[in-house]
Amino acid sequence: MQLSSTLKKIQELESGALSAEENVSRFIEKIEKDKYGAFLEVYSERALAQARKVDARRKKGGKLPPLAGLAVGVKNSIAVKGQRLTCASKMLEDYVAPYDATAIERIEAAGGVLVGSTNLDEFCCGSDCTRSALAKTCNPLDTTRVVGGSSGGSAAAVAAGLCDTTLSEDTGGSIRCPASFCGVTGVRPTYGTVSRYGVSDMAMSFDQLGPISSDVLGSAALLQELVGSDPRDATTVAALKQDFVSSLNNLPNGLRAAVPKQFFEGCDPGVESLVRKKIELLESKGVKVEEIDFPLLSYSLPVYYLLVFSEFASAMQKYDGLRYGADWAQGTNYNSVAAEVRSANLGSEVKRRILLGTYITTKEFRGAWYSKTLKARDLLRKEFAKVFKSHDVVLGPTMPMTAWKIGEKSQDPLQMYLADILTVPANCAGLSGASIPAGMHNKTKMPVGFQVIGKWNEEATLLKVLAAAED
User: Fold this and answer.
1) Does residue 117 sit in helix, strand or coil?
2) Looking at the DSSP assignment, which residues form a beta bridge with residue 160?
3) Which end of the chain, N or C, is surrounded by fewer C-beta atoms within 10 Å?
4) Predicted TM-score (pTM) of this structure
């Protein structure tokens, strides 16, 4: 049972059979030999110092904090004081974070040890982690294939055994996509449950931090330390700290699950077969499953991209070389110099999204595109609310395919966008969503992801369903 791997590590650290310094040192040695491009930076001195503090606390006696001694990787779009915050872009290649994100503070307070920062698509713009300007990440299970994105480095780090767990970020599937492609577990909690303070925004109304781990227990353990309100992030005002681990294996009786038939339209047959088996497993454990018609799901992809492009274009205005980013070139005209800095230091996908977002929100097209899309997003959220009146979770594939070959979709951005069709609905509605391994595809021999989407602020139920399906 996969749960035993994280549980065993926690027990070893609690008992002292394995010291935090030993645990962290082993991972640092592995990271320094990383051949998958998972990490951008290793926090060797910081990590070992943290680990020694955990060991010193154990020697004094008393109860250790929940994450004591676990090695944690951090997506490099999240601020860690004194370390580079690059967003995998040349624009921020040498930028050093002046403070810790709230999530980082909470991980360290819980005894977690930060071992380094993981690679991603530049400014989170991508679905396969091939668009980083600073490193190339490949799938540890097949190095000719992509790792998924944008949190590809985080998933690769877990899959390759380079850390115990990772703190990642999900805008439209950036946690669940790489978790699916790498055969690990990724959880995106309800929007507003985890503080985004200290996160480099891609789209502020979609972004949410969450864990990628080797199993459900690992994700639950990290997530319960992240959840909670934060006065520095107004979206978390109602977020309550919860204990997800203690009741993880208590699946409620009479749980009801919806399976939208649209989730399987255009889905690879091998993916569908494995996902159906997971659904049957849950049925055998008492979950009542019903296939439903959810036609509005087909609108989630255009809704997502139109709004994300708009928000991203706004968020990127500060990267002009004056306030943030690469140094200014010579010149006296702001517009021409800023354009030169951006042209030289931003990748093609980042530029594409800025241009599209700017176009959508111009005075001439705002009413036709942006305003209507906001209304469509509201309709999608209301439709999910109707589904959740009679069901507790929604089940289906995480991705309609397995990891593709490196370079296979790089020349056609539309194909890349279409790959997100099953993950973006949860983000559009602000829902929680997670992916666990469903098995290995019979032809590609690559992992298939099983996705569970939960009600707003009911992560505990979501995690219980994941644990039942993981067995």
Assistant:
1) strand
2) none
3) N
4) 0.96
